[in-house]
């Protein structure tokens, strides 16, 4: 295997072909006109289709049609749909990462990371339709992991703890991003925003959710909080920020316990 500089890299042989392509390690193209297309053009066309019509609409034939080439011409650059999906995921993960600022608050850095990750799911709704298939291996994905780890550079955590924190934050970002994406999709398809809060169903729920059948839920429904009829006066008044702050509180508590009881 050789990369674009002609370097031999036998140790990379076990990596999936799509991953190798993302790093610039390429195979000799099959016979055909040179320079007529590029991997980048094909991937960008695929992303445009997915952004418009969803990941199920992406096919080599449709991409070829959008670019004005034959389907077979694409296979000289990308071998399979699996490789294409790998490259699409890596491309949309090329996001703006804030500059490294010494002494910046770690909580704020984690907030920035989670919000930016959520943004990928909202900008490219199809991203959440792809299953998680393993650890990040492509360069842009790894840049995001590296960014997340930056917030823990000065924290008293070992390598396992740091990666576990990244997984915790990433999982929250993914679940929140999917919920926000689904809400956006529903609104675009004609649902009223009020349907998500359930506000229009407040009176019905107050009748149906009785103390006898739902002893712990009933008081919350009756208060109006369940359907956002009333909100308590709290420092954080939206679900996403409230959940994120509680995760950060948990991390801070964990750090405090390690300081008091070092292993």
UniProtKB/TrEMBL annotation:
Transmembrane segments: none annotated. Keywords: DNA-binding, Transcription, Transcription regulation. The keyword DNA-binding applies. Pfam families: TetR_C_1, TetR_N. Residues 59-78 bind DNA. InterPro entries: Homeodomain-like_sf, HTH-type_TetR-like_transc_reg, HTH_TetR, Repressor_TetR_C, Tet_transcr_reg_TetR-rel_C_sf. Coiled coil: none annotated. Signal peptide: none annotated. Residues 36-96 form the HTH tetR-type domain. PANTHER family: HTH-TYPE TRANSCRIPTIONAL REGULATOR RUTR (PTHR30055), TRANSCRIPTIONAL REGULATORY PROTEIN (PTHR30055:SF151). This is TetR/AcrR family transcriptional regulator. It comes from Cohnella soli.
């Amino acid at each position: 295997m050789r990369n674009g500089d002609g370097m031999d890299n036998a140790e990379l042989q076990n990596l999936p072909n799509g991953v190798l392509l993302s790093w610039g390690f390429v195979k000799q193209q099959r016979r055909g006109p040179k320079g007529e297309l590029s991997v980048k053009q094909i991937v960008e066309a695929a992303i445009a289709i997915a952004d418009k019509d969803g990941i199920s609409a992406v096919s080599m034939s449709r991409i070829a049609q959008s670019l004005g080439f034959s389907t077979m011409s694409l296979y000289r650059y990308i071998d399979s749909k699996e490789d294409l999906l790998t490259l699409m995921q890596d491309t949309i993960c090329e996001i703006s990462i804030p500059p490294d600022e010494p002494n910046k608050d770690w909580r704020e850095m984690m907030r920035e990371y989670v919000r930016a990750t959520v943004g990928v799911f909202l900008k490219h709704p199809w991203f959440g339709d792809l299953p998680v298939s393993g650890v990040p291996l492509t360069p842009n994905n790894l840049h995001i992991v590296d960014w997340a780890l930056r917030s823990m550079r000065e924290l008293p955590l070992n390598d396992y703890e740091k990666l576990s924190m990244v997984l915790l934050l990433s999982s929250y970002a993914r679940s929140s991003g999917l919920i926000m994406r689904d809400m956006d999709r529903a609104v675009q398809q004609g649902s009223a925003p009020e349907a998500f809060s359930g506000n229009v169903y407040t009176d019905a729920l107050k009748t149906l959710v009785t103390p006898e059948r739902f002893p712990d839920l009933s008081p919350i429904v009756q208060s109006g909080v369940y359907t956002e009829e009333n909100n308590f006066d709290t420092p954080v008044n939206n679900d996403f920020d409230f959940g994120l702050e509680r995760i950060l509180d948990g991390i801070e508590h964990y750090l405090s316990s390690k300081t008091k009881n070092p292993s």
